[in-house]
Amino acid sequence: MAELSTIARPYAEALFATARDDQAGLASWSSLVAELAQVASLGDVREALTDPRLNAAQRIELFAGLIKTPLSAAARNFIELLVSNNRILVLPQIAEQFEILKNRHEGTALAQISSAYALSDEQVQKLVSGLEKKFGLKLKPAVTIDTSLIGGVRVTVGDQVLDTSVQAQLARMRDTLAA
Fold it and tell me: Quick check: keyword Ligase in the entry (predicted)?
């Protein structure tokens, strides 16, 4: 997977530079890139785009026709670039890298919160408030339920993980006893 992110990075950086200077704004580009990535990740689309019977122009028209959002000239050029370089299937990784660049630019980050039980809005806000102080960033929470945690939460912000789950505590105790 590291190879795909390495391939995606220059495309995401170029797209981000274009989006930052575009009057449509980063939010508009972010939703478009997410839509492009979602379409590119569909199995039938991936199969059609790799069909050797289609030439580049047909692939571009096929892919552009599947996008609901009207495409600007810059967005269409981006799709043409990806198709001509055989990188259209890397769009999910490009979208991921684009979001990272967008969040960094805005001084925000995604906080992936896994909890053993459903959290109320108040609990999420309290947790996010404490995490924002710790990380010094404005966090956007994405909460999921993972019953294998037994209790507590696991928070991932970028490449940092805070794991206060019962599962993690049991694993630490097991390691301590085994040592």
Answer: no
